[in-house]
Write a structure and sequence with these properties.
Blueprint (H helix, E strand, L loop, with lengths): L2 H12 L7 H19 L16 H13 L9 E3 L2 E3 L6 H8 L8
Antiparallel strand pairs: 1-2
């Protein structure tokens, strides 16, 4: 899947029709890709030139949506306003990635 495909999916999921948020979403995509690869290969070392594996691309999209949607509420664990309670399953995009991506273990 290309980054253009990912950008299109993310914009559709969060309801963005224009291009004014593209740079922000592309930054989230780049940072999430780096975090996924670093986390997945944290126990064995990141292979040179490694990018996000195909099986992690959907997780990357959902991580960006999670990060984008809670922007401005980073590290918030609960919120109550006018009897409306809000909590997040993941505190931020990195937390979401760490919950969803399983690191490789070194075989001895």
């Amino acid at each position: 899947m290309t980054n253009t495909d990912k950008l299109t999916y993310i914009k559709t999921m969060v309801g963005i029709t224009g291009t004014e948020q593209d740079n922000l979403i592309e930054a989230y995509l780049a940072l999430s890709a780096q975090e996924i690869v670093n986390w997945k290969y944290s126990l064995i070392g990141v292979p040179e030139g490694k990018t996000v594996d195909a099986e992690d691309e959907v997780i990357q999209i959902h991580a960006v949506v999670a990060g984008y949607n809670i922007r401005g509420a980073e590290n918030q664990t609960s919120h109550n306003e006018n009897q409306i309670y809000r909590t997040f399953d993941a505190n931020d995009m990195v937390d979401y990635i760490h919950k969803m991506v399983i690191p490789f273990a070194k075989v001895v």
